Amino acid sequence: MNDAGSTFRRDCAAAALVAAPLLIAVSSALAPSFDGDEATRLAAMSGVTPTISALTFLLAQLPLMVAFLGIGHLLRAASVRLSLWGTCLGVGGAFAHTVFGGSPCSSRPWPPTSLIGPCTPSCSARSRTDPSCSSDCWDSSER
Predict the structure, then answer these.
(1) 56-70 pLDDT, tens digit each
(2) pTM (2 d.p.)
(3) What angle do CA 104, 139, 90 make, to 5 degrees?
(4) What is the pLDDT of residues 128-137, one digit of tens each?
(5) How many angstroms separate the CA atoms of 130 and 143, rounded?
(6) Residue 23 contacts residue 56 (beta carbons within 8 Å)
(7) Quick check: helix, strand or coil at residue 57?
(8) Per residue in 35-58, is it b (16+ CB within 10 Å) or e — as a string?
(9) Are the CB atoms for 20 and 64 separated by under 8 Å?
(10) Residue range 36-40: average pLDDT?
């Protein structure tokens, strides 16, 4: 069944699958460095480039959501359960992406620092080889 509605939904999903990563890449490329204390981070957020970064990050969330809903709709004919679970997890992941995107720990390597220790922004200004920083921000096996 290939009616106009089905083609429109498929085209919207395809456009969203292209738009979301592009907007996220622009946002990441223009994002300021969040090293230092709160005053330094606040000063880094002033200006046109960080504003464009924040707006493209927020705008990327809508196509990300449309992409997950579109993929779920396209999978519905093949497997209803896979479609339902994938869509629910994808939409939940999109919300989590929105929340975690503003976190000062988001630029840290995996695993998240909340799992291995406190997030100390001052560590990012120091080297990975600094022994006083490794226990706070990075796993010692990464050095």
Answers:
(1) 988 998 998 999 988
(2) 0.62
(3) 55
(4) 555 555 444 5
(5) 9
(6) yes
(7) helix
(8) beeeeeeeebeeeeeeeebbebbe
(9) yes
(10) 78
Rounded alpha-carbon distances, angstroms, from residue 55 to 6, 34, 58 = 31, 17, 5
Q: DSSP characters for 88-102?
A: HHHHHHHHHHHHHTT
The single-letter code of the amino acid at 45 is M
DSSP state letter for 124: G
Kindly report the number of other CB atoms within 10 A of residue 73's CB atom.
16
Helices 48-75 and 80-100 cross at an angle (nearest 10°) of 170
| Residue range 108-142, pLDDT digits in tens | 444 444 445 554 555 555 555 555 554 445 444 44
Using CA atoms, how far apart are residues 128 and 140, in angstroms rounded to an integer? 9
Residues found in the chain: 143
Q: Tokens 């395809």, residue?
A: 14
Longest dimension (CA), the chain: 63
DSSP count for the chain of H helices, then E strands: 6, 0
C-alpha to C-alpha distance for 58 and 20, rounded to whole angstroms: 10
